[in-house]
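Session log. Operator J.P. requested a structure for one protein chain; no other inputs attached. Running the standard single-chain path with token output.
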Amino acid sequence: MSTAGKSILMVDDDQDIRELLQTYLSRAGLQVQAEADGQGFRRALDAGNFDLLILDVMLPDEDGFSLCRWVRQHPRLARVPIIMLTASCDEADRVIGLELGADDYLGKPFSPRELQARIKALLRRAEFGQALAPSAVLAFDDWRLDTVSHRLFHRDGEEVILSGADFALLKLFLDHPQQILDRDTIGNATRGREPMPLDRIVDMAVSRLRQRLRDCEKPPRLIRTVRGSGYLLAANVCPA
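Structure written below.
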């Protein structure tokens, strides 16, 4: 997939990093707008449409976590891929970002080439989701998922906002109802490049999806843990 013409909005308070990435990514045909703080980022996002967002965690006026949360609360922006950048080696930062709906995480210092590869992978995933044939509203339990628009609705009418990673995991379960999916399968189908143990990544992703699906019973009723094997969607799935 070509990334030519795709638009990216990034926020980082380091001028050298902004200039480096604007130059490097522009050579790959990407259109990059760079902001130095959260206020500028919010203004830019309100004023335009972007295919991918890059958020630095540490900013002078607010942190990248609050920006990520703000993005995911807006239906228009909920499925825009997000990559978070951090100078911290603390795993807790990565966990927070992923739980808030970031799609990928990269620690500083990083290679611009690696960042470009991750951008391309996320744009490919987003484009594939948009290109799905309009097959498709799937019903399961008390829920309906539109697999084209990625909109998830409860039978009471509430719409639940899904990040790209949430949708990928839910779609994987819906494609394999009543089947045990091991952690390798889940990790490969969603994301697995973060510098954390795969089990930790998968467990966080499943926990977040359970919250979206109100699956908060002990033990969970809808997405069940199969000890030593993985997870299973305990629901029938059919076209709505």
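Operator note: The longest helix spans residues 112-130.
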